[in-house]
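Before our next group meeting I need something from you. Please put the record directly below this note.
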Amino acid sequence: MFIAKSWKFLFVISLLFFILWGCDDSSNKSKSDDTDSVVNTDSDSDTDSDSDTYSDNTSVPTKDICKDVGSVFGMGAAIYGDAGTNWYLNGADSSYNIDWLSGYMYTSGDPQDDLDGTDWIINYRLDTAEEGGATLPVVTFYRMLNVGEDYGYKGTEAQIVQQMLLNGDAVKDYLDDFIEVLKIINGRSTPTLMHVEPDSFGFMMWAFDGFDTASGNGDAKSVPVALSDANHPALAGQSFSDDAGGLGKAMLFLRDTYAPAARMGWHASNFRVGTKPEIVTSFYSSMGAWDVIVTEPPHMINNSSEPWDMDDSDNENNAEWLKTVSSTTGLPIVIWQTFAYDSEAYIGGWPDNQSNINLLAQNGVVAVFWDPNSESCGYTCKEADNLLDYLNKYSAAPLTLPAGTICNP
């Protein structure tokens, strides 16, 4: 009896030992076993004590814009009001058969929380983009100036934006607006590109008071942003630095939280006529990993009625600027808001003359977005009609993205 009882006792003790040993082993596994998908293995990643919590999650872009664009150089256009809607849809119908990659709209103007039907207007514009065939609709989120004006700040646009970023309440309102738009586009079946702040990041580099505006500021961490004072509940548990770099990473975090399918476009302002691209890439290096670079039209046309002078030094500078920004960031570039009166220089001779669009494609650009609206005559100008004709010819024989470039390596 004693032997039997002892055997049973030893069996129970042994069983408990193995159970406890197994639990202890699992608790002592390397954390990387469970989190290797978000670990930043970049040897240059920040290890300072004040580094952002989210920085580990943003070492590489999470969306493949090259897949969105496809194999050919894309074309898009602005959609403003009824006239813009009609012009855009006219381009897609059987008269022109334009193969739109994108249609884009602005969120700008009046205070966003006072706009009746913000949800409706954004969805209406994006519905229009998709109705015209766009596979990558775009929202240009341009709100820093408006929020600064709401708080009564005065001065140049750069001064208003700079003051706004120092006010925690204003930063909170700005992030509220951003989240509102993210929630709207999250409800859509087609992924949307969020193009963030044309000009504002450029002001931080080239126009903020207290910085060397001649040489430029390539340090995003030197630009104060009152993120901690904003105390936004959506950022609870995170530790973003109180600077422009922290803001960039916070916006990526909010994208992942509220609209994980959205693409994020960082606006790289070319404010120095194709010079000093290293300032732009250095500034971007602290922003986290966005999905695409968006920029305004390069300074490559001397006269809109004449073709590019390919020997002009500005053209060489701007081509090099595009190449450097794309190759250093590892991202494709979209040129945004190119005016209709420049269309002849870009694609007026298509398909016989492909050199100008090819020059852009060779240097990292994958698409051009057009603005056919003119301040003097709206969509009735000859240039708007000409643009439709040019895009019709382009769509019949689009440029295949060259081998050896960012989206066709």
